[in-house]
Design brief:
This protein is an all-alpha fold. It has one domain. The protein contains 22 helices and two strands. It has a two-stranded antiparallel ribbon. A hairpin with a 6-residue loop joins strand 1 and strand 2. The protein is globular and about 70 Å long.
């Protein structure tokens, strides 16, 4: 069957009344939680992961896609009106968007962010639909050594791409490896690192670790900061609609941001942060009035927001086709798949085409829902920004606890939630990224299984791991993944830091 036929079947799945309801609930919840200050898409998806636990796999993943896109969009509202980026990819949006809000142009800033997100999400999702089958055809010829090399690439990617230090990323990754060793050995059936505790024989639940480290750890970290004064929410004054000049200045930035963000998001060493920095630098170079940058240039909102959302769709390319998470949010989504016994990769397209194509089609529907939902309800989202932080983070603690109880009603599981939450707080306190630990727990057992299979086939000959051209190529890319993010990040950040310095002067 052709891509058009698969996509049409996926649309039929996504257009079923219950699945449309799941998508609507997902984008609404994702936007509502994503708008809240200090909460990025990864925390949003982790916090709402238990909500989807009791649904059927197709409905759950469709709601998950809505939560993902809604959380990505919600961060722009916080950045523009509160000058509080929920994640590093929203820094550039805050830089120009908040200046527009202070100048009484918060409406056009929010509008160009919403429409740019829609345009980028639409183009990038179509790109995902047409690129994914070709990557799947390549991945279907993978053997154990190729899969192990792919896992090495994933480990290197998350270690080097998250945080400012590759060493800290590796440390976080090995914490995940250690947790992945807990439970029953898949090959021998022997108990490992369970310390005689029966509850540990099934291993550490990915959902518990993700919710604990992202939600509980973040809450403890924010609470430890104390009261730093009230944050001022810029009111949306004047019309929400963009003028003809705003449209003429935005549409090219949307397209350029999409073209920059999607391929970078799909790269193993990509990520939304790099795309937004490069988009901002590109718009500043191409602008007819570059002196407006730093004072509220609408291109500085349109381009990076489009790049951010295109990158969000781009990260689904390696996630769905290879099982390779390249962002913290993608790592949580991988956990969402695995809670239904689904492993993203080429076999997912072969064994569960209805689910995966329904998911891709639901991204198109969720994207349209976001546009229709967000523009009329901007006033409601602004009111959410005024929720006092003690109430907000107390609610997060309650929601995370209830979600964990609903997914696994066990006192021991609640104890693990608290313990991992404290671990997440300590890691955050000392600047260790969280995502590598989650990826280590998810992919560690898979990497171990493929390595042992490869060594069994080769009768213990380690050199055969690099004899395959594909495996050797993946390992070379893994080595390059240490270098490429540093170069791109330094280049993009140089532009932003120079702009910040100019603003301070």
């Amino acid at each position: 069957m052709s891509t058009f036929e698969f996509l049409f079947q996926g649309i039929l799945v996504a257009m079923q009344p219950m699945n449309l309801l799941y998508a609507f609930v997902g984008v609404t919840l994702g936007t509502a939680v994503g708008v809240l200050p200090g909460i990025g898409p990864a925390l949003t998806v982790a916090l709402l992961l238990p909500v989807t636990y009791k649904l059927d796999p197709a409905g759950s993943l469709i709601m998950f896609a809505g939560i993902y896109y809604g959380g990505m969009y919600g961060g722009s509202t916080t950045s523009i009106l509160l000058n509080t980026p929920g994640e590093s990819a929203s820094i550039v949006t805050a830089l120009e968007g908040n200046k527009m809000a202070r100048a009484g142009r918060g409406g056009p800033a929010l509008a160009t962010a919403a429409i740019g997100s829609f345009v980028a999400g639409l183009i990038a999702t179509l790109g995902l639909a047409f690129i994914a089958p070709y990557i799947v055809k390549l991945a279907l010829i993978f053997g154990p050594r190729e899969y192990f090399a792919l896992m090495v690439l994933a480990f290197v990617t998350v270690s080097s791409a998250f945080g400012d230090s590759a060493l800290r990323g590796l440390t976080s990754l090995f914490i995940g490896f250690a947790l992945a060793m807990v439970g029953i050995d898949q090959q021998t059936g022997q108990a490992r690192l369970s310390f005689g505790v029966p509850d540990l024989l099934d291993g550490v639940e990915v959902t518990t670790l993700a919710v604990a480290m992202f939600a509980i750890g973040e809450t403890l970290y924010i609470a430890a900061q104390g009261n730093r004064g009230e944050e001022k929410v810029e009111a949306v004054r004047g019309s929400l609609w963009m003028t003809a000049q705003d449209w003429s200045r935005s549409w090219k930035a949307w397209l350029r941001g999409t073209l920059i963000g999607f391929p970078i998001g799909a790269m193993p060493a990509g990520g939304a942060e790099i795309g937004t920095f490069l988009s901002y630098a590109t718009e500043k170079r191409l602008a007819k009035n570059p002196e407006e940058f730093g004072h509220g240039a609408i291109e500085g909102v349109a381009g990076p927001e489009a790049a951010n959302n295109a990158s969000a769709a781009g990260t689904l390319v390696p996630l769905l086709t290879l099982g390779l998470p390249t962002t913290a949010t993608a790592a949580i989504m991988l956990a969402g798949f695995q809670q239904y016994g689904l492993q993203p990769g080429p076999l997912l397209f072969a064994n569960n085409p209805q689910i995966v194509w329904g998911l891709i089609a639901s991204l198109l529907i969720a994207n349209a829902m976001l546009l229709v939902l967000n523009l009329p309800l901007i006033g409601l989202w602004v009111r959410l920004l005024t929720i006092p932080k003690p109430w907000l983070y107390a609610g997060i603690l309650l929601f995370a606890t209830l979600g964990t109880i609903g997914a696994n009603p066990s006192v021991f599981e609640l104890g693990m939630l608290l313990a991992f939450g404290v671990l997440g707080y300590i890691m955050r306190l000392f600047g260790y990224p969280i995502a590598p630990a989650v990826v280590g727990l998810i992919l560690g057992p898979l990497a171990e299984q493929q390595l042992r299979r490869a060594l069994a086939i080769s009768q213990g000959d380690v050199t055969t791991l690099v004899m395959s051209p594909i495996a050797a190529g993946l390992l070379i890319v893994a080595a390059a993944a240490f270098i490429i993010p540093l170069i791109l990040r330094l280049r993009g950040r140089g532009e932003v830091l120079s702009q910040l310095a100019a603003n301070e002067d």
